[in-house]
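Batch 3, record 17
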Amino acid sequence: MTAPASGRRTTGFFVGFLLVALVIAGGLSYLASSAPDGLDSVTLQGCEVTGSEVTGTEELTGTCIAQNARDSATAGSPLADYAVGGGDGTVGFAGIIGVAVTVVVAGGLFWLLRRRGTTAGTAGPDS
Amino acid sequence: MVLAMHMSDGLVNAPTAAAFGLIAVIGLALAVSRARADLDDRTAPMAGLVTAFVFAVQMINFPILPGASGHLLGGALVAILVGPWVGSLCIAIVLAVQALLFADGGLTALGTNVVNMALVGVFVGYGVAVAMRGLARRSRAGLLATAFVAALVNTVVAAMVFVLQYAIGGDGVTSIGTVFGLMVGLHLLIGIGEGVITAATVGAVASVRPDLVHLLRGAPPSLELRGTGGAAAGSAT
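Prediction for the assembled complex:
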């Protein structure tokens, strides 16, 4: 095991890292550009987007790759499109939920996969 | 809703989606078996946090041109911080959470998205980073340059793999040449953003906890003090 002081330092770093992720997903996400990303710009090439995304009357006129896109099977999810229950201004809350879910799923998986007791070269007999 | 950050269902035909789904499963199975060697009591929680960080930063679309934006893919970032095998699992988990909870990226398109970003993006980023490792270990500027270049290349190559998938299983409504030109052009710009974010993140972690940067592991600390001399630096350029 590492010395207690070094352990506390590592815990402090991890807490700080998590806070940064929460601030980005929960706060900075409100400033994100809503313009189509690189891939969407390409799949929308040749089409014009008409109607309103808000009222769900969005339509593509012309011919483009995006016309083949189907709604995801999870489009009815309460968190679909990074909005909680479809509510306006909820992207930050959706982001915080996403950070919590990813850290638990990934952290849990990696914790289960890890080699036990091998930190700092003092490998224990347990395995 | 048509707009999302990743490939939706239906952009490539079912056999193509299935074939890339199979490649994704094989690649991730290999990653699970290899990741164990890179995971211990300290790197396992680090990898969990890196995953959450990538999820968070992927939400931040930054403008690249009027009417077009980009966001982090994260391949080089995770490869440099936690290694390629663990890193590909990080990105795959982000993509799975996005597809399942947030309807971002289709479910049948998950295989194509995993291949592009979690496998190709991560390993290309790692390859570039390893090729530049001598530079990365020599100085802080070298580390930042390595992170930037690895991220730029991973973004462009991941975009090229989409073009390959479109060429194999797209409907051809937009010509392959047009798709290639647009994808590469836009992702060169996005790659600059990806490079800046990756360099800033790797630089921040390395300044507090260089021991948690996979790419720097095993570097003799004294090298940083001695190795800035002319002979070594000259050989890099």
